[in-house]
Amino acid sequence: MDYRTYLISRIFILFSLFFLFAACAKPYHLSVDYHLPEEPAQLAGQKVSLVVEDQREDKTMLSESAQKEFDLWDGTYALALNETPPADPVETVDLTGLFHKAMQKRLEAMQVNVVDAPLDGIPALIITLEKVNIDLKGKTWHSQITYKAQLSRDSSKIARETVNGQAERAKIMGMGGGKKLAGELFTDVINELDIANLFDNAGLL
Fold first, then answer.
1. For 65, which of 18, 76, 136, 187 could close a Cys bridge (C-beta 3.0–4.6 Å)?
2. CATH number, domain at 149?
């Protein structure tokens, strides 16, 4: 085989590999791992409707630098519970859906019955998202999540709490560090909400 033939064959292989990888690259959802805390069932028998509202001024979760690492992410999420991958077919949700699913899992673990829609006489837990972002500065991932929780049976007595969490993690190859950081901070801010205290302050205990 002369050099010209060899060179052409190498170029052909490189182009074949390029188109193979391009064909395999496709949009993906972001799997967020949530770890349920161990809590006493002190709210057993309680009922609540759960609503999650997105009131963020900036709806862009990823900074420009972070977007480059999540370039094929389709903007949806799947909730993984205690490092157990979501069952097929994977149910994907938007950001409010992700918070709703995780908070519902926590309430149900506390033996609180979560109803599908607001009903007269049933307390309403409203989660309002105020800030959710992931940034990549140099070789460090940074993330911040802020939300407010409000619980009441009616407007006469309302319990409120604000949860704010921040975290950072060293960058590893690809988006792995950012994904791990998102799961850790998400778990922290969901579990930080003092649900029992909200029920108490709302006069429901």
1. 136
2. 3.40.50
